[in-house]
Write a structure and sequence with these properties.
This protein is about 35% helix and about 25% strand. The chain has about 240 residues and is of the alpha/beta class. It has one domain: Rossmann fold (3-Layer(aba) Sandwich). The strands form 2 sheets. It has a 6-stranded mixed β-sheet with strand order 6-7-8-3-9-10, with helices on both faces. Strands 2-1-4-5 form a 4-stranded antiparallel β-sheet, covered by helices on one side. α3 runs parallel beside α6. Bound molecules: adenosine-5'-triphosphate. The site of adenosine-5'-triphosphate has 13 residues, from β2 and α1.
């Protein structure tokens, strides 16, 4: 099979089940280099299960290709080494480590100390709040700050593809604004991003393309602006009738 070099991630016929519950029922999607793609849908639609299957933390059926090669059967560090970084739902920062230590953990697979130092400064420019508090323990940060730290830590691995699971979940409106601003900024600097979000209007507002997931299936897809103005999407996800 020939491979389109611009496709970073290709997912075909993906299925995930929890015992007898079929959470993901055969989904196809792709993320091209440089794109900001969002996967939207309501609570329980199967978005998180899809991401977990992509990163190998859940068993699945179907085909996953990253840069044209099968993704199955690899551990998380292998994925990071290949340029795939995930920011999980609930952030997963190391609460008893400082902000700076958390960021440096993200560079665990790298050995270019000059590049790591430069990237640490880049993270502090992107997230000034983290710079102000760099010696503080991560556990003392607010939810929004922990989200920033988790994103910063993922970016420290210099990923080719950044996977974000519900980054705005549980945050105050001001923090939600900040997080979407940062995702857009990171994307505009050239990062390829797959953004999983319940907040459909905000995600579509910054994305290039979107996929709508419902009960384990992708029911709609297209350019983000087109989905944002689609009456079915507006009725189901943007609270309009
Ligand atoms: P959310 O926004 O709440 O994370 P989601 O779209 O990401 O929703 P998933 O978390 O992937 O959806 O869940 C999809 C379906 O799988 C739901 O019906 C959910 O109840 C079920 N499910 C998720 N995790 C488990 C689990 N560990 N055991 C059993 N069922 C699960």
């Amino acid at each position: 099979m020939s491979h389109d070099a611009d496709i970073l991630l290709q997912v075909s016929g993906l299925k995930v089940a929890y015992g007898g519950i079929q959470a993901v029922k055969g989904v196809d999607f792709e993320v091209k280099r440089g794109e900001l793609v969002c996967l939207i849908g309501s609570n329980g639609a199967g978005k998180t299960s899809t991401l977990k299957a992509v990163t190998g933390t859940l068993p699945c059926l179907g085909q996953l290709h990253y840069l044209g090669k099968p993704l199955r059967g690899q551990g998380p560090w292998d994925l990071v080494r290949q340029g795939l970084a995930m920011v999980p739902e609930g952030r997963g920062v190391f609460t008893r480590m400082s902000i700076a230590e958390n960021l440096l953990m993200g560079a665990y697979t790298r050995d270019d100390s000059d590049g790591i130092a430069a990237d640490l400064e880049r993270m502090y420019t992107l997230f000034p709040r983290l710079k102000e508090r760099h010696t503080q323990l991560a556990g003392t940060l607010s939810g929004g700050e922990q989200q920033m730290l988790a994103m910063g830590r993922a970016l420290m691995s210099r990923p080719q593809l950044l996977l974000l699971d519900e980054p705005s979940m549980g945050l105050s409106p001001i923090m939600v604004d900040k997080i979407f601003e940062v995702v857009r900024e990171v994307s505009s600097q050239g990062m390829t991003v797959l953004l999983v979000e319940q907040n459909a209007s905000r995600a579509l507002g910054i994305a290039d393309r979107g996929y709508v997931m419902e009960s384990g299936l992708i029911t709609l897809s297209g350019p983000a602006q087109q989905l944002l103005h689609d009456p079915a999407v507006r009725a189901a996800y943007l609270g309009e009738s």
